[in-house]
């Protein structure tokens, strides 16, 4: 079951967001429209815009502005995907060829810029200064997170603390902005707004940690990307950091060298080391800790079906396989 199908009350709103997104991808430049439609329609769950809808409803919102707000979050997410795939030189995303693989790096970067711009156009139409403040801050932190990840690339001395800062910026920040802005739009009190902000932050961290695990477990059909992509790019994600910390001297040496040189020549022995050192279990446990924090944050909200759905999504985050 897709996340938006967990709550029948949210499905019509989710469909309205999809329609809004597709209606606002128009451009006088056909290539912009083609790439925009391709990436938006490529099979993602649209979890982040769903979180906007659920957060707003959980706070009692009864208007319609949460539809364009959810689209804003998806436009920003899609822009980051286009830019990420260029930076990472990825050729597979959600089981499909990436936009840069089909059209080249330059068009992908520029269409990403277009989607960022379109998101701010829509935000101006919504007209909530507090929302613009949260989202403009989030996009800055996301960019910083991406740069920090780039600086950590092929660096086997990356610490767990440094890596957590990376995923807080590049992944969790947009989750956090999605849920906090839903609360702002609903005019919620400070306690509810903070609760939803923290829920989004901890859910986003958990989501990325599970992604880290799946890079060493899932097939490309399940994950929608190639197994070992993180290792190929020289990314010291948490499973590798834990493997270096707990493995024997030879295992540490192998993992460090694999991170330094990148590529997939050492994938098979690295997979074995990751599994033998308990790195998969350790990372999953860290993700579960984040989910528990997300669920605790929800406790201050009124009991509604929307709060229940947010809790279900948190539970699904650590169980997913794609």
Automatic annotation (TrEMBL):
<dbReference type="InterPro" id="IPR033749">
    <property type="entry name" value="Polyprenyl_synt_CS"/>
</dbReference>
<keyword id="KW-0460">Magnesium</keyword>
<dbReference type="GO" id="GO:0046872">
    <property type="term" value="F:metal ion binding"/>
</dbReference>
<keyword id="KW-0479">Metal-binding</keyword>
<keyword id="KW-0808">Transferase</keyword>
<comment type="function">
    <text>Supplies octaprenyl diphosphate, the precursor for the side chain of the isoprenoid quinones ubiquinone and menaquinone.</text>
</comment>
<comment type="similarity">
    <text>Belongs to the FPP/GGPP synthase family.</text>
</comment>
<dbReference type="InterPro" id="IPR008949">
    <property type="entry name" value="Isoprenoid_synthase_dom_sf"/>
</dbReference>
<dbReference type="GO" id="GO:0008299">
    <property type="term" value="P:isoprenoid biosynthetic process"/>
</dbReference>
<dbReference type="GO" id="GO:0106350">
    <property type="term" value="F:all-trans-octaprenyl-diphosphate synthase activity"/>
</dbReference>
<protein>
    <recommendedName>
        <fullName>Octaprenyl diphosphate synthase</fullName>
        <ecNumber>2.5.1.90</ecNumber>
    </recommendedName>
</protein>
<dbReference type="InterPro" id="IPR000092">
    <property type="entry name" value="Polyprenyl_synt"/>
</dbReference>
<dbReference type="Pfam" id="PF00348">
    <property type="entry name" value="polyprenyl_synt"/>
</dbReference>
């Amino acid at each position: 079951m897709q996340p938006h199908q967990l709550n029948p009350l949210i499905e019509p709103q989710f469909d309205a967001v999809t329609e809004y997104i597709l209606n606002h991808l128009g451009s006088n430049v056909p290539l912009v429209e083609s790439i925009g439609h391709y990436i938006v329609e490529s099979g993602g769950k649209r979890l982040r815009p769903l979180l906007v809808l659920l957060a707003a409803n959980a706070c009692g919102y009864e208007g319609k502005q949460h539809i364009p707000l959810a689209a804003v979050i998806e436009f920003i997410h899609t822009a980051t995907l286009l830019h990420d795939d260029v930076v990472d030189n990825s050729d597979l995303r959600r089981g499909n060829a990436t936009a840069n693989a089909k059209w080249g790096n330059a068009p992908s970067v520029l269409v990403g810029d277009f989607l960022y711009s379109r998101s701010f156009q829509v935000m101006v139409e919504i007209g909530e200064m507090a929302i613009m403040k949260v989202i403009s801050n989030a996009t800055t932190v996301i960019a910083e997170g991406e740069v920090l990840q780039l600086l950590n690339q092929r660096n086997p001395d990356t610490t767990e603390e440094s890596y957590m800062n990376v995923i807080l910026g590049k992944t969790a920040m947009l989750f956090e902005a999605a849920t906090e802005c839903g609360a702002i739009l609903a005019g919620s009190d400070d306690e509810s707004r903070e609760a939803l902000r923290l829920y989004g932050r901890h859910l986003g961290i958990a989501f990325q940690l599970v992604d880290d695990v799946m890079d060493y477990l899932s097939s490309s059909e399940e994950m929608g990307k190639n197994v070992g992509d993180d290792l190929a790019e020289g990314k010291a994600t948490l499973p590798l950091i834990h493997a270096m910390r707990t493995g024997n001297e030879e295992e540490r040496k192998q993992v460090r060298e694999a991170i330094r040189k990148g590529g997939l020549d050492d994938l098979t022995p690295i997979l074995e080391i990751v599994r033998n050192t308990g790195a998969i279990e350790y990372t999953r446990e860290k993700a579960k800790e984040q989910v528990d924090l997300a669920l605790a944050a929800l406790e201050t909200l009124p009991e509604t079906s929307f709060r229940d759905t947010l809790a279900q999504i948190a539970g699904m985050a650590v169980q997913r396989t794609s």
